Amino acid sequence: MRHEIWLAALTDELRRHGVGPDLAGHVVAEAAGHLRDSGEAPLRAFGPPDTYAAAVADSVGGPALARSVPAGPVRLRAVDITKRYGRRTVLSGVSLTVHAGQVAAVVGANGSGKSTFLGICAGLVGADAGRVELHGTVGYCPQAGGTADFLQAGEHFALIGAGRGVPREAAVRDGARRAAALDWAPGDAQARHLSGGTRQKLNLVLAGLGDPDVLLLDEPYQGFDRGTYLDFWHEVWRWRDAGRAVVVVTHLLNQLDRVDVVLDLSAGSSGVAA
Amino acid sequence: MVAEMTLRETARRRGVLVLLLVLPLAFYLARRGDHLGQSIRFVCLGLSWALATAALFVGSAARSLEPRLRLSGYRTHQLFLGRLLALWALGVALSAPYFVLILVDQQNVRYAAIAVIMLLGVLVAPLFGLAVSALLPRDLEGMLVLLMVVGLQMILDPAGSASRFLPFWYSREIGTYAIDHTSADYFDRGLLHGAVTAVLLLAVVAVAFGIRLRRRPHVRIVGGLS
Questions:
Q1: What's the complex ipTM?
Q2: Judging by beta carbons within 10 Å of its beta carbon (0-12, 13-18, 19+), is residue B93 exposed, middle or buried?
Q3: In terms of CA atoms, which chain B residue is nearest residue A138?
Q4: Over the stretch B178-197, which tens digit does the pLDDT of each residue have?
Q5: Residue B221 domain-assigned?
Q6: Which of A157, B44, B170, B223 is a plausible cystine mate for B190, CB 3.0–4.6 Å?
Q7: Does residue B222 fall inside a structural domain?
């Protein structure tokens, strides 16, 4: 399905599901931006328009789940992060503090530096100024890539688990359990044969293996169907309830009432959240 | 674990494995009719090229996964040594049939020296391919470099000083000792060249991986993984 046709269908479906024009416009613009940047087919990236619109509508109408439970110790502290690519400043003086038992959302338009900021927090991307403190182990879910085409899901679990000191059998069991929470039963298929959404499930499961203290998730729900999208947020809340610090890069602003901390990078490439 | 998974990935690329196995055979058969000794030199070069190419693709395929593995707790040296172990094992498996072929098909050559060429190839070629993949992020650029090096290796006069800077020069030198029964100087020079090349390439791989997968200085991890 061509991008324009899919986006037009998404606009109609969002209206049909009662999503307001402002939010609908934002969602469509973000989806268009993602498709343009990634070059992916819309069906592969987001699924059918009606399913994706239903997921958006569902999350708009969902319950506010932010908790009043006191936060734990600091797990992630990013202070005055600045990043330039050539003459272009992508991030300027951005700060974020996330405690154990908190979910932070990093939001902003395409090109506002969300993924760069997450990469800087993970230590995968250098910063021109500022510092990051990570307290504990880190799990990272990239927006794309991060898996090996010719390995099966179980082999991914064993490989990542070994790095975190988890024995092979335990890692495979743990991976299968986490996959089940996302309505996925990993089989013998190699990663290259998985659909876009299932591959992202694998990515997400890998991020959570070994129960890292800090989870950095870069739009991990690309290609998820409606049910899995909701499962994903339930998984995030389970992590939060287990005392993990979770940072999610997202463009779905309707989820913001369900998170504890919001870092908005839209305004002038800078932001402070704690 | 990294070595095992690399072997599993490679074993599933059946088309690539067949090409890896056939490419040195093509080199061997190309000169078998008119010059038996030359066919030995060519098959050794073909094996090195095949292994370097395999290493190039293994390195490229792992590029997007390695930052995640690093974050998961692997040390940088565990990652590149794991890949190398797998490639060295693959190299032994690939070279063994060709050594048997030479044993059966060729007479009046120094077989032990030919075995040394092949073992040096198993050692050096994966290091060269991995070094190229670490320095050049795109497969096409890496392939062009490999083509250029192997082409030069064939064209340049092995007695000239320029050819000594090529990674597989030892192969021609020890080959001359093995095939033309020259003095042991050829063997010694070749062995020294192979060993020095291996050490230099290992250093390049270690430095390139270390830079690419380094923990950035702005990050301080407290109570986690280094």
A1: 0.81
A2: middle
A3: B71
A4: 888 888 888 999 899 999 99
A5: no
A6: B170
A7: no
